[in-house]
Amino acid sequence: MPTRWLLVFLGIYATILLVGCEADEGQTSSPVTESIEPFSTDPNADRPSARVLERYGIFFPNGVKHSIPMNDIHDGGPGIDGIAALTQPRFIPAAAADYMEEDDRVLGITLGGKSRAYPLRILVNHEIVNDTLGDRPALVTFCPECGTGIAFDPTVDGKALEFGVSGTLYQRNLLMYDRGSDTPSLWLQASGEAVVGPKTGISLDRVPIAQALWREWKVAHPNTTVLSKETGHNYSYIPYPDLLDRIPKQILGVIVGDEQKAYFFKDLRQMQVINDVIDGVPIVLIASPDSNAVRVYKRKNDQFEGTFEQVRDSRSRTVWELSEEMLLNPKTGESLERVPDVFVSYAGAWARFFPDTLIYQKP
Description:
Blueprint: H1 3-18, H2 50-56, E1 73-75, E2 91-93, E3 105-111, E4 114-119, H3 120-126, E5 128-133, E6 136-143, E7 148-153, E8 155-156, E9 159-160, E10 163-170, E11 173-178, E12 186-188, E13 193-196, E14 205-207, E15 210-213, H4 214-220, E16 225-227, E17 250-256, E18 259-264, H5 265-271, E19 273-278, E20 281-287, E21 294-298, E22 304-306, E23 311-313, E24 319-322, E25 326-328, E26 335-337, E27 342-346, H6 347-353, E28 358-359
Helix pairs in contact: 1-6
């Protein structure tokens, strides 16, 4: 999609997100009152288009189980595995990553005591990385159309599934497929849920992830490894453009229980520490003032203040320690768990999948 049309599209949906928001003591939420276009009621809604059937028929045998209208599944262009998911990725120490620039954006995760960075300059070409950290499987995904970088635990029924890029899209979002069966299922990247095929209705658990600048991530995680550009594919892996300033309606989406809430990065960067409540659960968001790196924790009865570099609880003024796994009070040993269902998204994409989203308003 040409950049100018992408900007127009995102601007329209960002406007939808903002409808109906009213301030109440500076920190309130309002549901979006203008709904997204409903699913098709066409009688052929349960049949993909002839083009999709011709190119992707393996996903659509007669009577296939599905939870979305199949005529809303579209051909993304490259065909099955036309975008090559990485299945045997190579990683190198941070010090050896001389191709990385300080302001490169990465997706970062910590599992099994290991930290790892996945540069967007590589992910935009592959969209999926099947990986293992500390003996724990990880599925790291990025949808360029939606700007959504999400990590999952790919384990289903005790087995780690391997995923590829199906070549199809739903609501402009990446549809992944599980490999290794005669009838694979299609999985929606935005939700991690199987939406077509025998596994329809099964959802993958999300793994906490941060979208950060390379310089931030490697300082916070000096022992991190990073995805090598030696992938076996002939790509130049040029830096991924930072659209944050060009598309101010990029948001951080947070899901807790049955509620979703969108936070705009201009607010997150300015405030850095935000106490909020979603679906009755108190949370705290801790945001970098320089990038879209944000961690979200369940704060129980605590109230926090300060900055990204120095987060204090409001009662004792104790400075807490921030990590990928938890927020820790070093004096008492109390720890607060990370909220896993958090990811960056273009505002339009978030609104398409969560039309009833709430929107945070700063004081």
